[in-house]
Write a structure and sequence with these properties.
Belongs to the SELO family. This protein is an alpha+beta fold. The chain is built from 20 helices and twelve strands. It binds adenosine monophosphate and magnesium ion.
Length: 577
Amino acid sequence: MKKSLPQETSPTIETLDDLSTLVNYSLMDTLNPDPDAKENGVDHAPRQVFSGHYVPVKPTPIKDPEYVTHSKDFFRELGFADSIAQSDDFVRMFSGDISQVPAPMRKVGWACGYALSIFGTEYYQQCPFQTGNGYGDGRAVSVLEAVIKGKRWEMQLKGGGRTPYCRGGDGRAVLRSSIREFLAQEYMHALGVPTSRSLSLFVSKTEKVQRPWYSPGSRLQDPDRMISEPVAISTRVAPSFIRVGQLELFGRRARKQEHPKAMEELEKIVLHLVDREYANVIDNKLPTAEKVVLLAREFRSRLTLLVANWIRVGYCQGNFNGDNCAAGGFTLDYGPFGFCEEFDPQFQPWTGGGQHFSFLNQPIAAERNFHMFWATLRPLLASQTDSLQQLDEIRSGFADEMQMAMEAMWAAKLGLGAFHAELFSELETLMVQTPVDYTVFFRELSNVPNDISPLQKSFYKGAAYEADPEGMDKRWSEWLTQWKSLITSGHYAQSCSREELSKQMKLVNPKYSLREWFVVPAYQQAAAGNYSLVRELQEVMTQPYAEQSKEAEDKYYRLRPSEFSELGGVSHYSCSS
Ligand code: AMP
Ligand code: MG
């Protein structure tokens, strides 16, 4: 399953010293530290943080770290030599010990607070103090900001120990959840979906923590026992980790005038977001009001496209609340996520998630997050009637823009030049009733088959199908005939050959999906010290559109075997940390 790599340019970062020349801590240098914080970052007990944008925190290293994997693709993009991933000082730093990093790297990292909103409703009770002042990065500690090849990146340790926002948690991430996030980030990137990236993954050979989990074979909704799991630190990387919920925290404080600098802190974080995530589209010299309007328009555009892309590839975020919604418009925080197998508009792998965050409800959930974003920005334009009106129009136009993005996405999945409502509606009904495997169905369709037999490879054949297989097949045939006439000529057809159309559709409809039952044995074997399956999955899933080898196809281009449906920890999970 080797892949041919693009022409390599020689790496420019071969040591931590090379990386240290590129550091630039814009967040710590331009935003406000918590005035109650300790400069040395020894700040590991839950407490309220009343003001400031960040808390300096020293990460807590995991004991006896061992290399699991790194992202070769991302290393190449950054110009990192593969060899540094296993060098002593890299392992030390990215397993949480930053006490010996070379200057001007700093020996203290930072954590940020954020507010929680779920589907557009503000919450405070998740904070142990019921004030919202103790909620935020409980176990994620950023350790570096650097400008690499002209792009600014923040590097964040997930599972890097307790912060003031840990709410009594242990500050750790287990190997299972770290492998899931590591693989998913690189898979999503390879699919062309904007996302935070994976840098490296280290596991502790000796440190374990307890987590609730499912007994083997359990079909219960909730975990039925505690298990001991190895802890890990994965490093995730993004232009920034600013979340909608983070802006909301400052918006709430400004609205309630919680302290004299509340409005100023709101403006500062919003302008920082513009610099970090929108510098290429928003001129730094513009007045704040104009920046805010442009920011809202651009975020709306990114968020709608992002969610349309999620649905294109079958991704369900699972817990799309305000603090899991990156203000830069990319996928962030892979917790109770999953990829849709049997097509179900209400697919939701997280037992605590509810229908509001289910697969095809994500456009509505996104709108709720956008609403909170809009409400947060409004006070900044209080005295500027024109700008405020523009901002309000951007808010009210969300649903239309979202729908346009969805229609364009469905049209592309179907190889059509424009969305055809009737064709899609019948397809959706058939996909649910049969039901089909979402990935296999669209991939088989991308071959532009002559009849429905190749499509039948994607059928799970549920009760509705079995009740009347001939009738269902007839409807599928009629649907296929209509689809074929639409792609061939007329308004909906694209002017290209059947071969070209197939090629184009295969760049929209991936062949390989990161199915949970592929990931489970990978993290189980990894917990026993064997990382080969993790690395194999990484290899296959970072070229999801390619046909790959026969071996890869036999192993990974498959419908979910029935023994995995309704299986605790595979088809659903209650906890993901
Ligand atoms: P999530 O729903 O996974 O995004 O988690 C909500 C918040 O809980 C996150 O922002 C984390 O900071 C925090 N959290 C989750 N697990 C832990 C843990 N083991 N220790 C400390 N904080 C945690
Ligand atoms: Mg989160």
